[in-house]
Write a structure and sequence with these properties.
By secondary structure, the protein is mainly beta. Helices cover about 5% and strands about 35% of the residues. The protein has a single domain, classed as Trypsin-like serine proteases (Thrombin, subunit H), CATH 2.40.10.10. A hairpin with a 2-residue loop joins strand 14 and strand 15.
């Protein structure tokens, strides 16, 4: 679901899962995915996007992303910080329910990672990515509203997390888009869970689900957490995936509303 804040970042902030603070991993080393979710059609969540990275065999899914305007997607900084100076290594794919086929592809013109992003703690794990051409909106491609700076999510609020990542910790990937319903938990509860790993800051949001446990996982990093048709979180990190002791950790979008608006304006 996210990046693994661990001595060996398994993935990428939900492109990775966390078990300890990362010490020397790069964004391409991290993991993410949806655990105990259900297949979902892209027309139900047309804001979902995939970041793909150029590899010897073509293009490989790297992280999730979310459409926030017709020329920008939002993702986790840990997914793209290694490519800020060479955005041509990545492309955005939208409008598909499949991990590696279908949809429309857009090359990337610019990557703006948060200037205070810290790989060691995954604080400020957010980035704006600009597409080289305007995206054409349709039933399968559309933007989602971002949380306002004043949004306050009640404990227990239900939200939907989605992505093309793995379906178990260090497990196999799903060939189709998956989603899972999770609930927001108290900041204090999350802080206690991660007390010996890393601080839970105001820019982070935690959520989980039980019976069965549900979570984002490797390959899902950078993807959306949406509540009442508003983007409230971006998949960031966690300890393992769907571990009952460790909630999933997301970048809290409301804390970065002005930063997002300002930087989308620079694209």
């Amino acid at each position: 679901m996210k990046s693994n804040i661990c001595a060996a970042f398994v993935f990428f902030t939900f492109s990775t899962t966390a078990s300890a603070l990362p010490t020397s991993a790069t964004s391409s080393d991290l993991p993410s995915r949806i655990v105990n979710g259900f297949p979902i059609d892209i027309t139900e969540i047309p804001y979902q996007a995939s970041l793909r990275r150029s590899v010897a065999s073509g293009w490989a899914h790297s992280c999730g992303a979310v459409i926030i305007s017709n020329n920008a997607v939002l993702t986790a900084a840990h997914c793209v910080d290694s490519y800020v100076l060479d955005p041509s290594v990545l492309k955005v794919v939208v409008g598909t329910s499949y991990r590696l086929s279908g949809g429309q592809s857009y090359m990337i013109s610019r990557i703006i990672a948060h200037e205070q992003y810290l790989q060691s703690t995954l604080e400020n794990d957010i980035a704006v990515v600009g597409t080289s051409k305007t995206m054409t909106f349709s039933a399968s491609v559309n933007s989602v509203a971002i949380a306002s700076s004043t949004l306050s999510l009640p404990i227990g609020s239900e939200a939907l997390v989605s992505g093309y990542g793995t379906t178990s910790y260090e497990g196999t990937t799903s060939s189709v888009l998956q989603a899972a319903k999770v609930k927001v938990i108290a900041q204090e509860t999350c802080a206690r869970a991660y007390l010996r790993i890393t601080p839970i800051t105001s820019g982070m949001l935690c959520a989980n689900a039980t019976q069965p446990p549900r979570d984002a996982c490797q390959g899902d990093s950078g993807g959306p957490l949406v509540a009442d048709n508003v983007l409230v979180g971006v998949v960031s990190w966690g300890e393992g995936c769907a571990d009952a002791l460790y909630p999933g950790v997301y970048t809290r979008v409301s804390e970065y509303n002005s930063w997002i608006v300002r930087n989308v304006g620079l694209l």
